[in-house]
Amino acid sequence: MKKRIVFLLSLLMVLSLMGCSKSKEATKSVDPAIMYEEAAKKMADLKDMAATANLKMAMIQGEETIDMSMDMDIKMTGAGTEDMKYLADTKMSMLGMDLDMKMFYTDGYYYVETFGQKMKYAMNYADMLDKVNESTMQTSDLSKYMKDIVATKEGDNTIVTFKLDGEKMTEYIKNMLADLGTNIDSGSYSGIEGNVETTINKDGYFSAVKMSLVLDMDVEGQAMKMNMDMDMVYRNPGKSLEAIELPDLEGYTEIDPSEIY
Cα separation of 92 and 15, whole Å? Predict the structure, then answer.
């Protein structure tokens, strides 16, 4: 059970770290993949960013189900500079327990406070920005895993939907878990299905992202299925943020990042 919980938390960090009743009209003049890539690039180039995210997961083995939910409030300023600051306040619920987590970045260190422990490890700002962009879907790299891409108009917004290529995404998750230093067998996946819906506003920025994933896997020799749904909403993309108030830096122990997992 402990190993499965660690596995679930690792997946959260990887996949880790949205309405209007107007009719939709298909857009035909621009390649939907190009629309997505251009919006992702605009998001990745932002110096300031604010978003909220909700993640729900269920790991199913036979008659047993482990449910987990996570709510995050994310802020970032000075992205891609030495003055970069990032703060993610997280509330997690699992196995009847509620857990508050706080993750933030400043002055070349990534800080994590969870389970009553305070840890930090060195990370340059470029690597930290890559980490944020991947976890908040602000990366055009996702286009590598797209298929069945469709774009529709909804008022001033463009909705781009697509499926994820299961074989390619499976390999991606294997590699990411290996990079995180998990002890889960990299050959434990047997399949993945995924659907993504992105809302691009009139200024060309993402305003919302929805993603649904289903993974079939084998953990400790037992067949399991994981269902995941994520909703992310960006607040005023393209606008500047006020200075982020970070927690006190005292009391954090420097560690090897692989020790977290």
Answer: 15
Round to whole Å and give the CA distance between 134 and 172: 12
Amino acid in position 90: T
Cβ atoms within 10 Å, residue 125: 20
Residue 211: half-sphere exposure toward Cβ, Cα within 13 Å: 22
Closest of 155, 149, 147, 146 to residue 207, by C-alpha: 155
Q: What CA–CA distance (Å, rounded) separates 228 from 57?
A: 4
CA distance 131 to 259: 18
* 3-class secondary-structure state, position 207: strand
β-pair partners for 98 = 93
| Residue 182 pLDDT | 46
pLDDT at residue 142, as a whole number: 61
d(CA 25, CA 35): 16
Question: Which amino acid belongs to residue 191?
Answer: G
The number of C-alpha atoms within 13 Å of 11 and in the hemisphere containing its C-beta is 30
Question: What's the CA gap between 44 and 139, in Å, rounded?
Answer: 6
Q: What gap in Å lies between CA 103 and CA 88, rounded to an integer?
A: 5
Instruction: Name the burial class of residue 230, with classes exposed (0-12), middle (13-18) and buried (19+) by CB atoms within 10 angstroms of its CB.
Output: buried
> What are the tokens at 117?
């422990």
Q: How much is the pTM?
A: 0.75
Tell me: pLDDT of 171 over 70.
no
